[in-house]
Amino acid sequence: MSVATFMLLLDITVVNVALPSIRQKLNASFTDLQWVLDAYSLTLAALVLTAGSLADRLGRRRVFAWGLVIFSVASLLCALATGPTFLNVARAIQGVGGAAMFAVSLALVAQEFTAGRERGVAMGLYGSTIGIAVAIGPLIGGALTSWLGWESIFYLNVPIGAAALVVTRLRLRESRDPDATRVDWAGVVAFSGSLFLLVLALVRGNDEGWASTLILSLLAGSAVVMAAFVWIQLRVREPMLPLALFRRHAFTGVQIAAFGVSSSLFALFLYTTLYLQNYLGLTPFETGWRYLPITALAFLVSPISGALLSRVPARAMLGVGLAAVGVGLYLMGDIAPRDDWTTLLVGFLIAGVGVGLINPVVADVAVSVVPKRQSGMAAGINDTFRQVGIAVGIAVWGAISVGRGAAKFRELAAGTPAAVGDRPRELVEAASSGNLKQVLAAVPAQSRRQVAAAARDGFLAGFNDVLFLGSLVCFASAALALWLVREREIER
Q1: pLDDT value at position 343?
Q2: CA distances (Å), 188 to each of 46, 90, 176, 255, 422, in order?
Q3: To pair with 184 at 20 to 30 A between CA atoms, which of 22, 99, 362, 424?
Q4: What local confidence, expressed as pLDDT, does residue 134 receive?
Q5: 3-state DSSP call for residue 219?
Q6: Where are the alpha helices (DSSP H) in 59-184?
Q7: 30-67 burial by CB neighbour count: b if 16+ within 10 A, else e?
Q8: Residue 474 CB neighbour total at 10 angstroms
């Protein structure tokens, strides 16, 4: 489980660092870069609950093994991509395999260890695996992208996946829920459809106009389909998402915590990478080194957090961890044009401690507040909230940062032809994705310097805003976790 989780998370962190190189090689737009991450997150979020249901019925080891195969083959397709659409389709297929693996990993760990200290230590080691992947992912991604090209980050998954598949067949015992009988396919279609419409609206909002018929229709359609999903879940015999589980306050609280940290810090890694590489001009390898403070601390704190699970109330660890991430994001903000990467350092350190506190607690509580026979479903729900957080977060922060950046650009470039129409948005997106020089070629020479400075300042204004808003999401999540999570509902 740890090897597979390592591969999954390594892929996510590695891809973040490689995005500017992918843009250059495949001539991708700012929206394409968002979809490189969202295509994976959306598919995973839409299917992880279904994969959990299938695993409970067909066997968790079997579904996990098929997930490894799909993920590894899709990784090879990603490496062979010849354009943004090809890459994003392959990333969506990766999400299918990732869903099968994510859905059962926590349940398979939990089945091997008794509740209490033993499971707490196991979850701590599992959390440390997450920490290692997060810690070395940007560095490995930067090194591979700089020396071998971005394709190598996907080739890497093939041998790791093959090795994990061998261990799965030899060492992992099978388990299933004897009471599981059917899969809620109607729920799958409604849930994935609603998420897709929402993210599409958020990604296209700045291009089409937020009051346009298309965007309003997409948002309304998402709401209607989500309402249909809730209606389906209340009426089918074996729902994809048993809403009754949310009557347990601790279960609800841990999902909010997972969504909060994913939609803030993890979603903002995309825009932090764009700042480090496209604004400051760092190479992928140099960017990987800059991420080490936050990722190394997450790795070091995770096993300590796991060891404390049986001694410290989960709500306290969740509350402190989320608050620390919020403080870290707040301190990262307010970046000035002449600042360098060290402006982020203090925030990185504090946020790294927070992530290290959160990960093992979320992993343990997610499967410890439900009956063991529902552990696969509970783990799938938790992974769904994580991936929905990342997918929605990337789309929301992208919309806000570009909108705020375009407004700042209009203010700074007033009086130039570039300050009218859609040009402010296009120039800020170009500054974000590293394509500013090519776009400036169409700007009159006499105003080119002013327009370039305004575009860069617009990107920075938007980045500062989303860092601040991300911190507010973490603070709100911390308060809700403290209120909802109760130790008496957790099996110890």
Answers
A1: 93
A2: 7, 20, 21, 19, 37
A3: 362
A4: 64
A5: helix
A6: 60-79, 84-112, 117-148, 152-155, 157-171
A7: bbbbbbbbbbbbbbbbbbbbbbbbbbbbebbbbbbbbb
A8: 28
Other CB atoms within a 10 A radius of the CB of residue 446 amount to 8
Stretch (H or E) spanning 260 = helix 249-261
Return d(Cα 28, Cα 19) in angstroms, integer: 9
Burial class (CB in 10 A: 0-12, 13-18, 19+), 203: buried
Residue 239: HSE in the Cβ half-sphere, 13 Å Cα cutoff: 18
pLDDT digits (tens, 9 = 90+) for 252-292: 999 999 999 999 998 898 899 889 988 998 888 888 888 88
b/e code 273-289 from CB counts within 10 Å (16+ = b): bbbbbbbeebbbbbbbe
Quick check: helix, strand or coil at residue 180? coil
Q: Would you say how long the chain is, in residues?
A: 492
| Ramachandran quadrant class, 209 (left: phi over 0; alpha: psi -120 to 50; beta: rest) | left
What pLDDT was estimated at residue 421?
80
SS3 label, residue 289: helix
The number of C-alpha atoms within 13 Å of 2 and in the hemisphere containing its C-beta is 11
State how far the alpha carbon of 141 is from the alpha carbons of 149, 284, 305, in Å.
10, 7, 27
R_g of the chain computed on alpha carbons: 22
Q: What are the two backbone dihedrals, phi and then psi, of residue 334, each rounded to the nearest 5 degrees?
A: 60, 40
Look at residue 127 in the predicted model and tell me its pLDDT.
Answer: 64
Segment 65-91, tens digit of pLDDT: 999 999 999 999 999 999 999 999 999
Q: Which of 289, 254, 303 has the alpha carbon at shortest distance from 125?
A: 303
How far is residue 294's CA from residue 131's CA, in Å, rounded to a whole number?
10
Token digits for 213?
């018929």
Which stretches of the chain drop beneath a pLDDT of 70?
13, 124, 127-128, 130-132, 134-135, 177-181, 372-376, 491-492
CA 378 to chain centroid, in Å, comes to 19
pLDDT at 178: 66
As given in the structure block, the two tokens for residue 411 are 């203010």
User: Residue 355 in contact with residue 347, Cβ under 8 Å?
Assistant: no
